[in-house]
Amino acid sequence: MEERMFVHKIVLGLTATALLGSCSMMMGAGGSTYTFKHKANAADPTAMGKAVATTKDGMVSTTLTLTGLTPNKAYIAHYHAFGPESNTDPCASNGPVTLGFPGFTADASGNATTAVTGDMAKIAGDQGAYLNVHYASDPSVVPICAPVKMTKG
Ligand SMILES: [Cu+2]
């Protein structure tokens, strides 16, 4: 009976590991993928997208692939550090920019992509807690945010 329980726990453990292995947060050969979530505002209500980050030789290359933006509108995007306003929700923490993407414009269908390569130190630990996409015309408008690091420290 004891042994059977033990085997059962191992199987559960393996299942959990397999799930983690398929989880997009893992840093692997394909890089890390982070999913954008809509912020609590009315800007670009169907906006969504992902960020894929790969590292090599101390540098990190991140590509954003976005949909549901306002057609032909200009945007900016950044990595931000964990800020002072939350310890558990990076997107609500209001931290400073640590690495910026080149500005970009959504196409006629509201799709856009942008990519940047920078020193890993710029987004190491709390320095790279989340990714924001802002209206270029008014950076205070942030339709979507992708959490990268969920807990400060
Ligand atoms: Cu920003």
UniProtKB/TrEMBL annotation:
InterPro entries, per the entry: CHRD (IPR010895), SOD-like_Cu/Zn_dom_sf (IPR036423)
Residue intervals of the CHRD domain: 43-139
Domain of life (superkingdom): Bacteria
Pfam family, one: CHRD
Similarity annotation: Belongs to the Cu-Zn superoxide dismutase family.
The protein's name: CHRD domain-containing protein
